[in-house]
Write a structure and sequence with these properties.
Helix content: 25-40%
Largest sheet: 8 strands, mixed
Structural class: alpha/beta
Oligomer: single chain
Number of strands: 14
Number of helices: 9
Bound molecules: S-adenosylmethionine
CATH class of the largest domain: Alpha Beta
CATH architecture of the largest domain: 3-Layer(aba) Sandwich
Shape: elongated
Strand order of the largest sheet: 1-4-3-2-5-6-8-7
CATH topology of the largest domain: Rossmann fold
CATH superfamily of the largest domain: Vaccinia Virus protein VP39
Distance between the termini: 73 Å
Strand content: 25-35%
Amino acid sequence: MRKVEYPENAWSSFLSHYELGRPIFWEQAFGRRAPLVVEIGCGLGEFLVRTARAEPNENFVGIEQAWQRVKKTLRKIESYYDKNQTVPFNNIRIIQVDAAVAFERLFVPLSVNKIFCLFPCPWPKQKHIKYRLFSRDFLKLLNSRLMMQGEVQIVTDHEPYCDWIIGELSSTGFDYQKQIVQPRFETKFERKWTQAGQKEFFQLSLVKAEHQDVAVTKDVELKTYRVEEFDPDHFHLDEIAEDIVVVPKEFLYDVQRKKGMARLLVSEKGLTQQVWISIEKVVRGWLIAKTEGHTVLPTSGVARALHHVYQAVKCASDSATQKS
Ligand SMILES: C[S@@+](CC[C@H](N)C(=O)[O-])C[C@H]1O[C@@H](n2cnc3c(N)ncnc32)[C@H](O)[C@@H]1O
């Protein structure tokens, strides 16, 4: 079998914002300065890869939440290396993250030229409307990250969603145009609807006319706490249900190593993260900190969860003292 040389592995198209830090310096990530085009929910990467190949002078970022789809996109990129044995294009980067988190934290204002979103989940049921991505706040966020005259192009199979987005546009700084378009994007979801008999889709083109100011959401510094005593037998975590929701899921304790680990789900502003917090015996007392080696966005929710564990540890030693 002939050995194929990969001058650059396709997996290098995958970026981890946990490793790179936030916001991402995109020119550095691509190794060049070029217009920045972003696709939200790039699915299997069909449109992203095709467009990036057709526009070699632009830098393309694909945002996708689902890991299986990210993997398929990377495999698609890899398939080009197999056939050509050369670097056919190096202008795609993929990030696995929620689109709102990405635009809040990874892109600075006035940095993006164009944003595509093809067949976003329409959440057609009334009770699910709250899950729709293109709310007024999200549109303002996109506006702030776009350059002046920058564009958002949304294509949907669901006309009520298109009209709902139009209803969300006031005070977002966009001019818009709605058009009925034929299938032409050749993506999995376009094929799905075309095969089901749909012949027309709804395209919304938004052009940035006025700038909206939305600052980059900064990382929160995560504290470590130290206490003198810890009694795991009296340790109990309650749920917090405020604007930040913290749900304790499990607590593991290793008696020999004198180390406990609490797993919590932390939800805030549409972002839910699984957070592990350690309570560990150190030379003087016990240290409470985010467990090393697992990745979380350092948000105010995570800081709140750490403080919550700290308070519960203090309560546990107080009640142990009272009982003795
Ligand atoms: C209906 S599919 C469309 C996929 C692709 N654009 C196509 O036309 O085949 C919607 C895609 O958006 C992704 N997605 C949904 N909400 C997202 C979010 N908030 N951030 C990032 N990706 C999201 C889903 O995982 C899914 O891949």
